[in-house]
Amino acid sequence: MEVILKQDISGLGYKNDTIKVKGGYGRNYLIPKGFAIVASTSNRKMIAENIKQASHKAEKIKNDAEAFAAKLAEVTLQIGAKAGEQGKIFGAITTNQISEALKKEGYEIDRKKITFKSEVKMLGEYEAIADLHRDVKQDIKFTVVEE
Length: 147
Known about the structure:
Blueprint: E1 2-5, E2 18-20, H1 23-30, E3 36-38, H2 41-73, E4 76-81, H3 95-105, E5 114-116, E6 124-131, E7 137-146
């Protein structure tokens, strides 16, 4: 079954993408929740017209995301965590902690748009990825230090 996404869905696609999904997933979850519509010819034409009309606005949004990514590239965060003698931290660093640290620096990013390159379980330097736009992703450098 082919559907057209009405919003960005992590791991599936971005808004206005036409994707193939299993019939039950589309009919029982995506369409009733309002996340997608059936990819009929009339819906495809409607989405194509909407994309055409929104292309100028989308270009501005992309340029803004690229400018934000350039500012974000210069930032290195310090995240405090309790750690044992070997440098192993108790628990793990979460995307919520990264989002809060960015907010303190003056950058507003939703925690759901942040992912880690690797699991953070020790003190040291790490990188996370911020999904700012469908074409713009930026690495966020952060250091985990002992509190």
